[in-house]
Protein backbone atom coordinates (compact mmCIF):
# COMPACT_ATOMS: atom_id res chain seq x y z
CA UNK A 1 0.00 0.00 0.00
CA UNK A 2 1.35 3.41 -0.94
CA UNK A 3 2.24 5.79 1.83
CA UNK A 4 0.08 8.85 2.21
CA UNK A 5 2.04 12.11 2.09
CA UNK A 6 0.72 15.47 3.29
CA UNK A 7 -0.03 18.07 0.70
CA UNK A 8 2.86 20.54 0.49
CA UNK A 9 0.63 23.60 0.23
CA UNK A 10 -1.81 22.59 2.93
CA UNK A 11 -2.83 25.55 5.07
CA UNK A 12 -1.86 25.44 8.73
CA UNK A 13 -4.88 24.86 10.99
CA UNK A 14 -5.93 27.92 13.02
CA UNK A 15 -5.26 26.04 16.26
CA UNK A 16 -1.60 25.67 15.30
CA UNK A 17 -1.18 29.27 14.21
CA UNK A 18 1.75 31.11 15.70
CA UNK A 19 0.97 32.65 19.05
CA UNK A 20 1.44 36.37 19.63
CA UNK A 21 4.60 37.30 21.49
CA UNK A 22 2.76 39.97 23.49
CA UNK A 23 1.51 39.29 27.02
CA UNK A 24 -2.11 40.37 27.30
CA UNK A 25 -1.99 40.97 31.05
CA UNK A 26 0.92 43.42 30.66
CA UNK A 27 -0.92 45.34 27.94
CA UNK A 28 -4.05 45.45 30.11
CA UNK A 29 -2.07 46.82 33.05
CA UNK A 30 -0.53 49.49 30.82
CA UNK A 31 -3.99 50.45 29.60
CA UNK A 32 -5.28 50.69 33.16
CA UNK A 33 -2.33 52.95 34.04
CA UNK A 34 -3.17 55.30 31.15
CA UNK A 35 -6.85 55.27 32.15
CA UNK A 36 -5.95 56.04 35.76
CA UNK A 37 -3.70 58.89 34.62
CA UNK A 38 -6.51 60.42 32.56
CA UNK A 39 -8.98 59.93 35.40
CA UNK A 40 -6.93 61.84 37.96
CA UNK A 41 -5.87 64.53 35.47
CA UNK A 42 -9.30 65.33 34.09
CA UNK A 43 -11.47 64.20 37.00
CA UNK A 44 -9.50 65.92 39.72
CA UNK A 45 -11.53 69.12 39.41
CA UNK A 46 -14.74 67.19 40.08
CA UNK A 47 -13.28 64.76 42.65
CA UNK A 48 -10.51 66.54 44.58
CA UNK A 49 -9.93 63.46 46.71
CA UNK A 50 -8.28 61.61 43.80
CA UNK A 51 -5.61 64.22 43.00
CA UNK A 52 -2.08 64.10 44.37
CA UNK A 53 -1.59 64.52 48.08
CA UNK A 54 -0.07 67.99 48.70
CA UNK A 55 2.77 66.43 50.68
CA UNK A 56 2.26 63.63 53.23
CA UNK A 57 -0.38 61.02 52.51
CA UNK A 58 -1.46 58.75 49.69
CA UNK A 59 -4.22 59.33 47.16
CA UNK A 60 -5.29 57.69 43.92
CA UNK A 61 -3.11 59.92 41.74
CA UNK A 62 -0.03 58.94 43.74
CA UNK A 63 -0.27 55.38 42.37
CA UNK A 64 0.13 56.41 38.71
CA UNK A 65 3.90 56.93 38.58
CA UNK A 66 4.81 53.82 40.63
CA UNK A 67 2.50 51.76 38.41
CA UNK A 68 4.24 52.98 35.24
CA UNK A 69 7.67 52.28 36.73
CA UNK A 70 6.60 48.86 37.96
CA UNK A 71 5.19 47.72 34.62
CA UNK A 72 8.30 49.04 32.86
CA UNK A 73 10.34 46.66 35.00
CA UNK A 74 7.99 43.77 34.29
CA UNK A 75 8.24 44.41 30.56
CA UNK A 76 12.04 44.47 30.65
CA UNK A 77 12.11 41.03 32.25
CA UNK A 78 10.17 39.74 29.25
CA UNK A 79 12.14 41.65 26.62
CA UNK A 80 15.56 40.62 27.91
CA UNK A 81 14.70 37.06 28.90
CA UNK A 82 17.31 35.83 26.41
CA UNK A 83 20.14 38.22 25.58
CA UNK A 84 22.59 36.97 22.97
CA UNK A 85 24.67 40.15 22.59
CA UNK A 86 24.92 42.18 25.77
CA UNK A 87 26.82 45.08 24.25
CA UNK A 88 24.30 45.54 21.44
CA UNK A 89 21.39 45.23 23.89
CA UNK A 90 23.02 47.86 26.10
CA UNK A 91 23.34 50.36 23.25
CA UNK A 92 19.70 49.81 22.28
CA UNK A 93 18.55 50.38 25.86
CA UNK A 94 20.68 53.52 26.25
CA UNK A 95 19.36 54.95 22.98
CA UNK A 96 15.76 54.34 24.04
CA UNK A 97 16.35 55.96 27.43
CA UNK A 98 17.95 59.02 25.84
CA UNK A 99 15.06 59.40 23.39
CA UNK A 100 12.53 59.15 26.22
CA UNK A 101 14.44 61.66 28.33
CA UNK A 102 14.67 64.19 25.49
CA UNK A 103 11.00 63.73 24.69
CA UNK A 104 10.21 64.53 28.32
CA UNK A 105 12.35 67.68 28.17
CA UNK A 106 10.50 68.77 25.02
CA UNK A 107 7.04 68.14 26.49
CA UNK A 108 7.60 69.33 30.07
CA UNK A 109 10.64 71.56 29.85
CA UNK A 110 8.63 74.69 29.04
CA UNK A 111 8.99 74.60 25.26
CA UNK A 112 5.23 74.32 24.76
CA UNK A 113 3.13 77.09 26.28
CA UNK A 114 -0.19 75.33 26.75
CA UNK A 115 -3.14 74.32 24.63
CA UNK A 116 -4.48 77.87 24.42
CA UNK A 117 -1.22 79.41 23.19
CA UNK A 118 0.26 79.27 19.71
CA UNK A 119 3.63 80.48 21.01
CA UNK A 120 6.50 78.09 21.63
CA UNK A 121 10.11 78.17 22.70
CA UNK A 122 11.89 78.09 26.03
CA UNK A 123 14.46 80.14 27.91
CA UNK A 124 17.41 77.78 28.27
CA UNK A 125 18.20 79.38 31.64
CA UNK A 126 14.83 78.26 32.99
CA UNK A 127 14.19 74.99 31.16
CA UNK A 128 12.94 72.16 33.36
CA UNK A 129 15.28 69.20 32.97
CA UNK A 130 13.37 66.62 34.99
CA UNK A 131 9.80 65.41 34.67
CA UNK A 132 7.59 62.35 34.35
CA UNK A 133 9.08 60.84 31.20
CA UNK A 134 12.59 61.67 32.37
CA UNK A 135 11.98 59.73 35.58
CA UNK A 136 10.67 56.74 33.65
CA UNK A 137 13.76 56.87 31.42
CA UNK A 138 16.05 56.79 34.47
CA UNK A 139 14.22 53.83 35.98
CA UNK A 140 14.14 52.12 32.60
CA UNK A 141 17.87 52.33 31.91
CA UNK A 142 18.84 51.17 35.41
CA UNK A 143 16.49 48.18 35.23
CA UNK A 144 17.54 47.37 31.65
CA UNK A 145 21.23 47.32 32.57
CA UNK A 146 20.40 45.15 35.57
CA UNK A 147 18.63 42.63 33.40
CA UNK A 148 21.34 42.64 30.73
CA UNK A 149 24.42 42.45 32.96
CA UNK A 150 23.36 41.42 36.49
CA UNK A 151 21.64 38.11 35.80
CA UNK A 152 23.13 34.82 37.00
CA UNK A 153 20.88 32.27 35.30
CA UNK A 154 23.00 29.21 34.50
CA UNK A 155 20.44 26.42 34.45
CA UNK A 156 16.92 25.71 33.33
CA UNK A 157 15.47 25.72 36.83
CA UNK A 158 15.77 29.35 37.82
CA UNK A 159 16.03 30.47 41.43
CA UNK A 160 14.24 33.78 41.85
CA UNK A 161 16.72 34.84 44.54
CA UNK A 162 20.02 33.22 43.60
CA UNK A 163 19.72 34.01 39.91
CA UNK A 164 19.05 37.70 40.52
CA UNK A 165 20.84 38.42 43.79
CA UNK A 166 22.96 41.13 42.14
CA UNK A 167 19.76 42.98 41.22
CA UNK A 168 18.45 42.69 44.77
CA UNK A 169 21.79 43.93 46.06
CA UNK A 170 21.65 46.98 43.81
CA UNK A 171 18.08 47.75 44.91
CA UNK A 172 19.11 47.56 48.58
CA UNK A 173 22.18 49.71 47.89
CA UNK A 174 20.15 52.41 46.12
CA UNK A 175 17.60 52.41 48.94
CA UNK A 176 20.37 52.77 51.52
CA UNK A 177 21.93 55.67 49.58
CA UNK A 178 18.51 57.32 49.33
CA UNK A 179 17.86 57.04 53.07
CA UNK A 180 21.39 58.13 53.93
CA UNK A 181 21.14 61.29 51.83
CA UNK A 182 17.57 62.01 52.89
CA UNK A 183 18.29 61.86 56.61
CA UNK A 184 22.03 62.54 56.74
CA UNK A 185 22.57 65.66 54.66
CA UNK A 186 22.68 68.97 56.49
CA UNK A 187 20.36 71.57 54.95
CA UNK A 188 21.47 75.17 55.65
CA UNK A 189 19.38 78.30 55.32
CA UNK A 190 18.80 79.19 51.70
CA UNK A 191 17.58 82.09 49.60
CA UNK A 192 15.87 82.37 46.26
CA UNK A 193 14.46 85.10 44.06
CA UNK A 194 10.98 85.03 42.59
CA UNK A 195 10.21 87.07 39.49
CA UNK A 196 6.74 88.30 38.54
CA UNK A 197 5.24 84.97 37.49
CA UNK A 198 1.55 84.09 37.24
CA UNK A 199 1.56 82.12 40.52
CA UNK A 200 3.00 85.01 42.58
CA UNK A 201 1.33 88.23 43.73
CA UNK A 202 4.21 90.51 42.83
CA UNK A 203 4.08 93.79 40.93
CA UNK A 204 4.73 93.69 37.21
CA UNK A 205 8.42 93.40 36.36
CA UNK A 206 9.09 93.05 40.09
CA UNK A 207 10.93 90.46 42.13
CA UNK A 208 11.35 89.43 45.71
CA UNK A 209 14.06 87.59 47.60
CA UNK A 210 12.94 85.03 50.16
CA UNK A 211 14.97 83.36 52.88
CA UNK A 212 14.05 79.92 54.20
CA UNK A 213 15.35 79.11 57.68
CA UNK A 214 16.52 75.51 57.97
CA UNK A 215 19.92 74.69 59.56
CA UNK A 216 18.92 71.08 60.22
CA UNK A 217 19.17 67.56 58.84
CA UNK A 218 16.62 64.80 58.47
CA UNK A 219 13.63 67.09 57.93
CA UNK A 220 10.96 65.68 55.63
CA UNK A 221 8.86 68.82 55.17
CA UNK A 222 8.61 70.87 51.97
CA UNK A 223 10.97 73.61 53.16
CA UNK A 224 14.09 71.86 54.45
CA UNK A 225 14.28 68.41 52.91
CA UNK A 226 17.59 67.31 51.41
CA UNK A 227 15.95 66.26 48.11
CA UNK A 228 15.17 69.88 47.31
CA UNK A 229 18.63 71.01 48.38
CA UNK A 230 20.31 68.51 46.05
CA UNK A 231 18.21 69.70 43.12
CA UNK A 232 18.91 73.36 43.87
CA UNK A 233 22.67 72.76 43.94
CA UNK A 234 23.01 70.28 41.08
CA UNK A 235 20.26 71.28 38.64
CA UNK A 236 19.71 74.87 39.73
CA UNK A 237 16.62 76.39 41.29
CA UNK A 238 15.64 78.04 37.99
CA UNK A 239 15.32 74.61 36.36
CA UNK A 240 12.84 73.16 38.86
CA UNK A 241 9.07 72.83 38.66
CA UNK A 242 7.60 76.27 39.36
CA UNK A 243 4.17 75.12 40.56
CA UNK A 244 4.76 72.34 43.11
CA UNK A 245 1.67 70.67 44.46
CA UNK A 246 2.55 71.41 48.08
CA UNK A 247 1.18 74.90 47.49
CA UNK A 248 -2.21 73.31 48.07
CA UNK A 249 -1.30 72.92 51.73
CA UNK A 250 -3.45 75.02 54.02
CA UNK A 251 -0.44 76.88 55.37
CA UNK A 252 0.33 78.30 51.90
CA UNK A 253 -3.12 79.89 51.58
CA UNK A 254 -3.08 79.54 47.80
CA UNK A 255 -5.77 81.60 46.11
CA UNK A 256 -7.94 80.80 43.12
CA UNK A 257 -5.77 80.78 40.01
CA UNK A 258 -2.73 79.33 41.75
CA UNK A 259 -1.49 82.61 43.24
CA UNK A 260 0.43 82.52 46.53
CA UNK A 261 -0.08 85.50 48.88
CA UNK A 262 2.93 87.47 50.07
CA UNK A 263 2.23 86.60 53.72
CA UNK A 264 2.59 82.87 53.08
CA UNK A 265 5.71 81.07 54.34
CA UNK A 266 8.72 81.74 52.08
CA UNK A 267 9.04 78.15 50.87
CA UNK A 268 5.50 78.30 49.45
CA UNK A 269 6.90 80.56 46.70
CA UNK A 270 9.88 78.32 45.92
CA UNK A 271 10.16 75.94 42.96
CA UNK A 272 10.42 72.25 43.76
CA UNK A 273 10.67 69.26 41.45
CA UNK A 274 8.74 66.13 42.52
CA UNK A 275 10.73 64.18 39.89
CA UNK A 276 14.10 65.34 41.15
CA UNK A 277 17.46 63.60 41.46
CA UNK A 278 17.16 61.93 44.87
CA UNK A 279 13.73 60.44 44.28
CA UNK A 280 14.97 59.04 40.97
CA UNK A 281 16.90 56.50 43.06
CA UNK A 282 13.67 55.04 44.40
CA UNK A 283 12.19 55.17 40.90
CA UNK A 284 15.00 52.86 39.79
CA UNK A 285 14.28 50.60 42.77
CA UNK A 286 10.63 50.41 41.74
CA UNK A 287 11.66 49.28 38.25
CA UNK A 288 14.00 46.67 39.73
CA UNK A 289 11.15 45.34 41.86
CA UNK A 290 9.04 45.17 38.72
CA UNK A 291 11.84 43.11 37.17
CA UNK A 292 11.41 40.46 39.85
CA UNK A 293 7.68 40.17 39.19
CA UNK A 294 8.48 39.93 35.48
CA UNK A 295 10.90 37.07 36.18
CA UNK A 296 8.08 35.15 37.82
CA UNK A 297 5.86 35.83 34.84
CA UNK A 298 8.55 34.76 32.35
CA UNK A 299 10.09 31.78 34.15
CA UNK A 300 7.07 30.14 35.80
CA UNK A 301 4.31 28.82 33.57
CA UNK A 302 1.93 27.38 36.16
CA UNK A 303 -0.58 30.10 37.18
CA UNK A 304 -0.82 28.84 40.76
CA UNK A 305 2.95 28.90 41.23
CA UNK A 306 3.06 32.39 39.74
CA UNK A 307 0.42 33.64 42.17
CA UNK A 308 2.18 31.95 45.09
CA UNK A 309 5.53 33.53 44.25
CA UNK A 310 3.98 36.94 43.67
CA UNK A 311 2.37 36.73 47.11
CA UNK A 312 5.63 35.58 48.72
CA UNK A 313 7.31 38.63 47.18
CA UNK A 314 4.51 41.12 47.87
CA UNK A 315 3.85 40.39 51.54
CA UNK A 316 7.39 41.18 52.83
CA UNK A 317 7.59 44.35 50.72
CA UNK A 318 4.19 45.48 52.01
CA UNK A 319 5.13 44.76 55.62
CA UNK A 320 8.44 46.62 55.23
CA UNK A 321 6.71 49.62 53.66
CA UNK A 322 4.04 49.66 56.38
CA UNK A 323 6.76 49.50 59.04
CA UNK A 324 8.61 52.50 57.56
CA UNK A 325 5.35 54.43 57.32
CA UNK A 326 4.50 53.58 60.93
CA UNK A 327 7.82 54.78 62.34
CA UNK A 328 7.72 57.91 60.19
Structural notes for this entry:
With 328 residues, the chain is mostly helical. The protein has two domains: 24-185 and 280-327, no CATH class; 186-269, no CATH class. Helix content is 48%, strand content 5%. The chain has eight helices and four strands. It has helices at residues 24-43, 64-79, 86-108, 132-149, 165-184, 226-236, 277-299, 303-327; strands at residues 186-187, 190-195, 207-212, 216-217. The strands form two sheets. A two-stranded antiparallel sheet has the order 1-4. The radius of gyration is 24 Å and the shape is globular. The model is unreliable at 7-17 (pLDDT under 50).
Strands ordered across the widest β-sheet: 1-4
The shape is globular
The quaternary organization reads as: single chain
Radius of gyration: 24 Å
- The count of domains is 2
Helix amount, in percent? 40-55%
The helix-and-strand class reads: mainly alpha
Report the portion of residues in β strands. under 5%
Largest sheet: 2 strands, antiparallel
The succession of helices and strands, N to C, reads: HHHHHEEEEHHH
Distance between the termini: 84 Å
Count of DSSP H/I helices: 8
Mean pLDDT figure = 87
Ranges where pLDDT stays below 50 over 5 or more residues in a row are 7-17
Number of strands: 4
Question: What's the structural blueprint in terms of helices and strands?
Answer:
Elements: H1 24-43, H2 64-79, H3 86-108, H4 132-149, H5 165-184, E1 186-187, E2 190-195, E3 207-212, E4 216-217, H6 226-236, H7 277-299, H8 303-327
Antiparallel strand pairs: 1-4, 2-3
Domain Heparan-alpha-glucosaminide N-acetyltransferase catalytic: 22-146
Keywords: Membrane, Transmembrane, Transmembrane helix
Pfam family, one: HGSNAT_cat
